[in-house]
Amino acid sequence: MIGIQAVTGLVPGLFQEDSNTGEIIWGIIRYYLKDYQGAIALYNESINLDPHDARTYQNRGIAHYKLGDKQAAIADFNQAIKINPNFADAYHQRGNTRSDLGDKQAAIADFQQAVKLYQQQGGNEKWLKIAQDRIRELQKE
C-alpha cells in the first residue's frame, strides 16, 4: 500500500491543515479495503476539520451501514441531508437503510426524493433506475 508520505509527495497540497480532502480520500481507500472502522475514524477526522461537508457524513453513514450499525447510518444520512437537502445519494442510501429496518413508507419517500433529485440534476441514469426499481419493489411488498 502507498504510504501517506508518497501520496503527499505526488499531490502537493493534498493534506493541508485547513482541508479535509486527504482524510476523505484515505477514508474512501479504507472503505474499499473493507476496513470500515478505519474509514469511520478517518471520516471522523474529516468532520472535525469540516463539519459542514455532507459527503463525509454520507460516506461515514455507508461505513456504519456496512458494519451493521443502521441507526448510526441513518443519523449520518440525516446530517448529510440537513447540510445539503439536494444530496440525492444521501436520500438513496437512507432509503436502503430504512428499507432494511422495515420502514417501507419512509424508504419509498426517500427513494422518491432521490428520483426527483436525480432527474433534476441529470447524469445519474444508473442510480435513477436503481431508485425507481427499489420503489417498485417496495410497493409490491
Automatic annotation (TrEMBL):
GO terms for cellular component: cell outer membrane. SMART domains: TPR. Coiled coil: none annotated. Keywords: Repeat, TPR repeat. Signal peptide: none annotated. Pfam families: TPR_9. InterPro entries: TPR-like_helical_dom_sf (IPR011990), TPR_rpt (IPR019734), Ycf3 (IPR050498). PROSITE patterns: TPR, TPR_REGION. This is Tetratricopeptide repeat protein. TPR repeats lie at residues 54-87, 88-121. GO terms for biological process: receptor-mediated virion attachment to host cell. It comes from the Bacteria.
